[in-house]
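Researcher: Here's a chain I'd like modeled. Treat it as a single chain, no partners, no ligands.
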Amino acid sequence: MRSNDENMTGEGRSIRIGMLTPSSNTVLEPFTAKLMEPLFPDVSAHSTRFRVTKIALDDTANKQFSLAPILDAAELLADARCDVIAWNGTSASWLGFDTDEVLCAEIAARTGIKATTAILGFNRILEKLSVKKLGLVTPYTPDVQARIISNYKAHGIEIVSEQHSGLTDNFSFATISEQTIEDMCVRAAVAKPDAIAIVCTNARGTFVAPKLEEQLGIPVLDSVSFTLWACLDALNVPMGRLSKFGSMFSR
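Model: Modeled as a single isolated chain. Structure tokens:
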């Protein structure tokens, strides 16, 4: 049996994942902790926050994702000697995937620690699954949704169905019930996409997704889950112990 001081890569200590968390998010930390239970004590997750309160396309909202506050937060995670640092938010889905690529490079340069993000991990999963037709479920407004659809179309993925709640207040996203998210996914499945994505790390889709996969017969990809997937993938950590939380962890 593996001792508490041996990790899954054989380096003699536990692996630490650092999570950069939106300040008004109340879902991702407890849901990530629940996902992590089968991996602990081999792998642990640690969070720090920076201010994000509104999701919109205006300048004020976009400035929340400027590099300076995120890099300051990343330095705090570096103090915990994390093995990877993840931006646990989905802003690149509407701001452009290159924003996350730049952020990861800056985090690595500032801290010396490899970095990943929710959306970069999600895009890798889409590629691994050969997804060309996607169902999109979010709490966002129509214009944010349209920007996400446009970004994925430019990268060869057609959003064949979409459901959104029309909200801008980031805190409010967590008030959408699991039943509502489930219903949105079921409606998105009518167009027969290759997969459905719940894009928002403050949405309660994490434990709805595996149930929906059984019901719908297609991958249902939740943002909290695919952020963790991205971190484990970056560190070459086996994910089999998480297979009950979704097919992404079995592939």
